[in-house]
Amino acid sequence: MTTLLIEKSPKYNRLINIVAIAIPLVVAVLLGIRQKVDLGEWTSTLPHINGAINSLTAFLLLVGRYFIAQKNVQAHRISMTAAFVLGSLFLVSYVIYHLTNDSTPFGGQGVIRPIYYFLLISHIVLSVVVVWFVLKAIYFAFSNQIAAHKKVVKWAFPIWLYVSVTGVIVYLLISPYYQ
């Protein structure tokens, strides 16, 4: 299998910084649109698909970590690239869902309520933060800057795994309240 390599260039660092800022801003603007778009009933299934995507992403992150620990760079690259693709699909699906459906209020009461909101808020905040780390990790990997890749992955991996796992937990906690 041919390995895709990109050149080492400052333009990619600028692009990563712009994209890492633009994605959360664009998502926030899109989520702020109160008028919902009617794309059909199928969009009501997107939270369930997103839960599956987050589950699979977390699994691929762990598999990718296992492969690199075994020094299987090719399998690691495939796993992590698949995790990145799934994360991108999740983002598109998440935006489509929120553009087409009202947010579902959490109906849980008692001790589970603050736990849910802690997980939700930490998930959202870290999902914004992790974008830059993941983009840098992918850039460093595909530009063969392995030392820099390893440095950024020390942050990217645990944050990304936390975001993926808490995404599943938040989904499981709110799923009984979907209409």
From TrEMBL:
<feature type="transmembrane region" description="Helical">
    <location>
        <begin position="12"/>
        <end position="33"/>
    </location>
</feature>
<protein>
    <submittedName>
        <fullName>DUF420 domain-containing protein</fullName>
    </submittedName>
</protein>
<dbReference type="Pfam" id="PF04238">
    <property type="entry name" value="DUF420"/>
</dbReference>
<feature type="transmembrane region" description="Helical">
    <location>
        <begin position="155"/>
        <end position="174"/>
    </location>
</feature>
<keyword id="KW-0812">Transmembrane</keyword>
<feature type="transmembrane region" description="Helical">
    <location>
        <begin position="115"/>
        <end position="135"/>
    </location>
</feature>
<keyword id="KW-0472">Membrane</keyword>
<feature type="transmembrane region" description="Helical">
    <location>
        <begin position="45"/>
        <end position="68"/>
    </location>
</feature>
<keyword id="KW-1133">Transmembrane helix</keyword>
<dbReference type="InterPro" id="IPR007352">
    <property type="entry name" value="DUF420"/>
</dbReference>
<feature type="transmembrane region" description="Helical">
    <location>
        <begin position="80"/>
        <end position="100"/>
    </location>
</feature>
